[in-house]
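Progress note, sequence design subtask.
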């Protein structure tokens, strides 16, 4: 469930960033095309360039996050196959919570057995 929300958010941000890049390029072309565009464009060329650079950087980071998300989904599906559970019914949070509970219980029981042997 959490993974689906993250994927949807990443796609949404990717679309928004693509729109920002297009708007920046459009505004820059208007600014350079004619002096009349100065009254239309309320931002200076420097601020548009800064916004454009930010949008390009953000888009690159968004692509990296999309790649990481795909890799995480693939890894989780491999773990689901290995541990024989349905990844749609058993969330990542539940899975790792159960693993932590098991490890904590295992450590406590192992220590108690070691102390009882002595």
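Output:
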């Amino acid at each position: 469930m959490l993974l689906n929300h993250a994927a949807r958010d990443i796609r949404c941000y990717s679309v928004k960033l693509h729109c920002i890049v297009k708007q920046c390029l459009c505004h820059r072309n208007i600014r350079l095309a004619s002096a009349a565009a100065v009254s239309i464009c309320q931002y200076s060329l420097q601020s548009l360039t800064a916004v454009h650079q930010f949008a390009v950087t953000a888009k690159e980071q968004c692509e990296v996050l999309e790649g990481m998300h795909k890799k995480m989904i693939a890894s989780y599906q491999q773990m689901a196959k290995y541990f024989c559970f349905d990844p749609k019914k058993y969330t990542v949070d539940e899975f790792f919570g159960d693993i932590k509970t098991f490890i904590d219980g295992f450590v406590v029981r192992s220590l108690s057995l070691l102390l009882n042997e002595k």
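The chain has two domains: 2-85, 88-118. Work on this subtask will continue into the next period as scheduled.
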